[in-house]
Structure formats: C-alpha cells, structure tokens
Amino acid sequence: MALAKKKKIFCSNRNGRQIILKKFLNTVLLLINAIVAGGLALSYISGSVNPQKVWILPFFGLAFFAFVVLNVAFVVFWLLRHRWYFLISAVMLACGCGLFKTIIRPSRSASIQGEKKLRLLSYNVNLFGLKYRPSSQIIFNEVADYIAHEELDVACLQEFFVFDEGRYNEAAINKALTNLPNRYIHYNVVKGNQKFGIATYSKHPIVSQGYITFANTTNAAIFTDIAQGSDTVRVYNVHLQSVRFGDYEKELLQGAASQNASPKFLRRASFKLKDAFIKRAKQVDAVVEHIKQSRYPVIVCGDFNDTPLSYSYRTMRQIPLNDGFTDAGRGIMSTYISAIPSFRIDYILYSPKFYATAYYCPNLKYSDHYPLVCRLINREVP
Predict the structure, then answer these.
(1) pLDDT tens digit string along 78-112?
(2) DSSP state of 336
(3) Are 232 and 225 in contact (CB under 8 A)?
(4) Based on CB atoms within 10 Å of each CB, which residue in 199, 258, 292, 296 is the most buried?
(5) How confident is the model at residue 168 (pLDDT cuts 50, 70, 90)?
C-alpha cells in the first residue's frame, strides 16, 4: 500500500514537472513568435522611414524573406498544436498582402490597348568585364549582340566602362550599337585612359540631356529627353549607391564564410551597409525632386541596389510611378546573380500614362546583374 502511494506521488510530481516544462517551452516559443512577428512588421515599414533618420530599419527589410518563412513556420506549428497562437503570425502575414505584389506576381497577359510602343533595357554591365576578365573573355561583343537582338528603342547601361585607346574604346562601342545611333554618356570617373560612368542609347532623337550630381561617390544619374514622333519622354538612367562589398563579404552574407567571420569584420560589413542606406536615401531624394520638375512623362531605369521594401523604391513609386513588374512581371524575379539580395534591385518605373505589356529578365550571365527588358505602350489613345 505504501509502495503504491509513493508511486502515485512520484507520477504526480513527474506529471507536474512535465506540465511546468511544457508551459515554460510554450512561453518561450510564444515570445520567439512575437519577436519574429515584430521583425516582419519592421520589415514592412522599413521603406517608409528615411534611413538618415532611422538607419537600423533597412536591415529588417533585407531580412524580409527570412521573417516570412519563420512566420509561416509558426502558423503551421501552432495549427498542428491546435493553439490560437497561430493568429499572431497569420495576422502579421495578412497585413503585408499589399507589399507581396511587388515581390511575387502570377503570370498574366495584359489586355490594355495603346499605341506608340517603347521597348527598353536596363542593364548593369559590370564594366563589360574589362577589369575582371582576361582579354580573351571580355564580354562587350556578347552584350552588344544581345542588345541588337532585343530590337530596343532605348538601352540604359550602368557601370559603363571604356578605354581611350585600343579595341574597347567608346567609338568601337558606338559602332557596334548602330541600331541605337543616339546616345548620352556621362563619365563620372576618369583615370588615365580609363573612363567609368553611365550611358543611355536611343533609337529616337535625343533633344536634351543632363546629369544629377551625387556627392562623394562614383554612382550617378542622367536624364535624356527622347522624341518619338510628336511626343517627348524623359528617360532617367539611375545607378544608386553601391555597398562595395568584396568577395569575402559577399560569401559571408551567403553563409559560406560565417564560421570564420570575426566580430570586427561583421561590424565593418554592417557599417558599409549603413553608409550605403544613408547615401541612397540622399540620392533618391535628389532624383525624385528632379523628376517632379519634369514637364514630360518620365521613365526611370536603373540599378537601385535596393529591394522593393526599401526607402529608395517606395519613394520613387510615390511620385507616382508604376512598376513594370507589377504590370506585366511574373513569379519572383531576381535581377542580381547572387543569393543576397534574393530579389529585385534593378527596376523600370514609369508615369501612369504608360503600361507594360511585357517585363522580363533574361538569364544571361555576362555581368553580375541580369538584363531587364520592358515593353511599354502609351495608353492615352487620342
């Protein structure tokens, strides 16, 4: 009898400890869930606040996909446990529905009618490989052939690079792009016989042009007023601040070097990101102010070096400008050949009078970016 009583007491104590442990684990998981949901909320608002005021928020924007995955995992976990706690992450995911359309789009065909079609390319050509490849592997000819194949009206090239002398000079490039005879090239770095800048080539006449100065950087923005028949459109070619990570830093962000990364190195990478966030905010503010003064409808092409949740992207959209991806894109598009960042950092945006009937990103690995192609129509039919 005494043995049975002791056994009962032991089982009772064990069950009590298990209940306490279970409650403790649930509390810890609930706390982690709340933190993950809060991180997703901060990623949502990261593009609404100027990084010059709160520089930490863009880091949450970069981690957006990770927060989405973790919140989906918590929804599934709590549903399997038959707990109402799943609502914490489910509600937070639902709050971001409006943002998801800038990141993922179903395939669909455009039914908008219009006239005066424009076919545009935005492409960070990564110096045509002139600084990073042996002469036998320079990819200028491949890029020129690709541009000719696309039968473009306008080509906006970032990280444009030429030599003053030799095979790969500006005259040789212009000759190769005979289908785009009009051009405006702005070199913001000239070192010896090397020139680095940004270039816009056009099939149609360029009636005026200019550039927007960015302080303390090699990045730049230019604009060209292009006449198409009786209409004129202003095309902005924009290359916002680069982070300027080295190979090891890129490997670190992708997880390949994380075990060997020192705290000092992590701080340096974070400072580089912070500096780029703040510089891009200043640059995009300058471009937006310039666009607001334009008397023509505008098209903005370029490498923003930032995601659709960023201050740069959202500020540009609020002009207002439409995004070719949300009009005619499909799937989850990545324009940078790397796992980080894992979605778009190159864009083609435009005034509401235009509409995209095609928007795609060919899988060409001539650069560290993919080319971006958009076909626009003017839907203001007389």
Answers:
(1) 999 888 999 999 999 999 988 888 888 886 655 56
(2) B
(3) yes
(4) 199
(5) confident
| CATH code (residue 160) | 3.60.10.10
Last residue of a domain, one of 66, 100, 134: 100
Q: At what angle do helices 86-95 and 64-80 cross, to 10 degrees?
A: 140
Domain stops at, among 47, 75, 100: 100
Angstrom distance (rounded) from CA 368 to CA 38: 33
Q: Which of 322, 242, 324, 320 is nearest to 288 (CA)?
A: 320
3-state class percentages of the chain: helix first, strand second, coil last, to nearest 5 = 40, 25, 35
Distance CA 48, CA 60 (A): 12
Q: What is the pLDDT of residue 40?
A: 97
* CB within 8 Å of 197: residues ≥ 6 apart: 160, 161, 185, 186, 187, 188, 189, 220
Query: Going by C-beta distance under 8 Å and a sequence separation of 6 or more, which residues neighbour residue 212?
Result: 220, 221, 222, 223, 286, 287, 290
Q: CB of 372 within 8 A of CB of 335?
A: yes
Query: What distances in angstroms separate CA 278 from CA 49, 56, 302, one per listed residue?
Result: 11, 10, 18
Paired strand residues for 364: none
Measured over the CA atoms of residue 261, residue 264, residue 270 and residue 275, the dihedral's sign is negative
Residue 219 token pair = 């990045």
Counting the structural domains of the chain, the total is 2
| Predicted confidence (pLDDT) per residue in 217-258, tens digit | 999 999 999 999 889 999 999 999 998 766 555 555 555 455
Same domain, 177 and 91: no
Domain that holds residue 46: 2-100
